[in-house]
Design goal:
The protein has 198 residues and is an alpha+beta fold. It has two helices and nine strands.
């Protein structure tokens, strides 16, 4: 009885074909995973930029003595260049300007010259609008960012759009808190009463 050694040509061919198919599937899946990872990284970076913009804008508005919006209630595309969207007058003769410039650019102006710039790169398919709202007591600034939602595989824009809203009260840091005033009044009254008892 003969014992078989090695593989036939047909078996080798089948193994080669199956290996090529598995390799092609693995390469295709790797491409999809890498694409999704790239899109996710861009989305995370975009979220970080929006978070930083929110913190800086709120801080500026809270410190501001006044706000000027050249094109109030107008939605401006982030593709436009060098359009001022708002100007905040801060204490100590300092002005902070927000403008559209490859996203949003923050400029600090003192004595007529720019002393600092900070960029917030955003997807140029987005749009921005700033408006003032007044309730008779306080003025608040509202920045609305309309951002396109990208397809996770192709990166192409698709509906619905996402809206990011930043709200801040003008001059909030300069206001005296009613709770603090009340507490200080009560403390003064107690110490006066205590003095009378002695």
């Amino acid at each position: 009885m003969k014992t078989r050694q090695g593989f036939t040509l047909l078996e080798m061919t089948l193994v080669s074909v199956v290996s090529i198919i598995l390799l092609a599937v693995a390469v295709a899946l790797t491409g999809v995973v890498m694409g999704l990872s790239s899109v996710t990284s861009r989305q995370l970076e975009g979220e970080r930029v929006l978070g930083r913009l929110s913190l800086v804008f709120r801080k500026d508005v809270h410190q501001a003595e006044s706000i000027t919006i050249p094109q109030e209630n107008k939605t401006i595309s982030l593709r436009e260049d060098d359009q001022i969207i708002c100007e905040l007058r801060l204490p100590h003769q300092e002005i902070v300007r927000y403008r559209v410039h490859r996203g949003i650019l923050r400029e600090r102006v003192r004595d007529g010259g720019v002393v600092g710039r900070e960029g917030f790169p955003l997807d140029l398919r987005g749009r921005v609008q700033i408006r003032q709202e007044n309730d008779g007591i306080h003025t608040r600034a509202v920045m609305m960012l309309e951002l396109g939602a990208g397809d996770p595989i192709t990166g192409q824009e698709r509906d619905p759009h996402r809206t990011w809203q930043i709200v801040a009260y003008v001059g909030r840091d300069q206001l005296t808190s009613p709770a603090v005033s009340l507490d200080s009044t009560q403390t003064t009254a107690k110490s006066q009463n205590g003095g009378e008892q002695q």
